[in-house]
Amino acid sequence: MTETIHKTDAIIVGAGPVGLFAVFELGLNDMKVHLVDILDKPGGQCAELYPEKPIYDIPAVPVCTGDELTQKLMEQIKPFNPVFHLGQMAEKLEKTSEGWKLTTDRGTVIEAKVVVIAAGGGSFVPKKPPIKGIEAYEGQSVFYSVKKMDAFRGKNLVIAGGGDSALDWTINLQPLAAKLALIHRRDEFRAAPDSVAKMRELVVQNKMALKIGQITGLKGEGGKLSAITIKDEKGEADYPCDMLLAFYGLTMKLGPVASFGMAMEGELIKVDTSTFETNVPGLFAIGDINTYPGKMKLILSGFHEAALMAKKAFEVVYPGRKYRFQYTTSSSDLQQKLGVDSGKAA
Ligand SMILES: Cc1cc2nc3c(=O)[nH]c(=O)nc-3n(C[C@H](O)[C@H](O)[C@H](O)COP(=O)(O)OP(=O)(O)OC[C@H]3O[C@@H](n4cnc5c(N)ncnc54)[C@H](O)[C@@H]3O)c2cc1C
37: Cβ below 6 Å to ligand 1? Predict the structure, then answer.
């Protein structure tokens, strides 16, 4: 098999919201981008974990869902024609005389002057409840995330967990489900107090049930669930249901990025906050994956980091060129790049 080597200016590892916005900032500064993501779609956590949940703290966007934010970012970066390598793990990173060579687990090779790690929490996988035989039901009756709320319409649904995801989905799916029960091992929750209060109110109104105990078994046939076995202080009993949504948290696996040679603090990459470069020149880290004093794991923090990263990346990619600070509002040069040249720029 002949190996195709892609050549570009910048490689972004991770097509989450921050990786996507980095395409925009790099594009405004004349840098072409290839992105690699292990997920089969762009959007990172927004697309995978909460596509239909509302986000309220994106500047100037009072509310949008995880999916809507992803779509808007994809629309915003369209003028820069980024190349996506989805469903692939960025596995090996090597220094070359020109810059960097990245190889994925599917054998894709990309060479670039700079590499931007926007790997979020790493390649995340949901933690599974320790229930024997659960695999047989996965994808049909047992789920670890909500891709389409409608899949739960009219179902006899059990949600397991005590964190924000479990509580949020309890509140969001209760109006859709025929019957809903939340099960948690104790009567205390690690979720926002407001969500807990809303859930308890639904219980008082008899609109859902709250079960305190642990799921010890699943009953059903051919992947179709008919009941779960719940163990509580009184013993074990079956509880009829046809769908189980389990939120036992995520395993954040940094994965291969840990071997890329950057200084780390635990599972996070240390950066210089004036450039978001790591201790390795030409390697940058933005978004949830990085750490610095005062870091807040918010999408808006990652957007800011992308802008500063692009400024330094420009110096690496174009060592002879002078960086020019410009506004998109008034620069005809930037507007041309965006394909919105109005001819009215000052
Ligand atoms: C339920 C929930 C609600 C949230 N609500 C808000 C909110 O209201 N406001 C807010 O600002 N933030 C919110 N967040 C946090 C927000 O989603 C994150 O801050 C944001 O997604 C970080 O973006 P990112 O691009 O850095 O990383 P991510 O979104 O995590 O994307 C990283 C991507 O990198 C990929 N990846 C990692 N390693 C590799 C590899 N080696 N090879 C290939 N691909 C790789 C992953 O598959 C992933 O797609 C919420 C998070 C959750 C879970």
Answer: yes
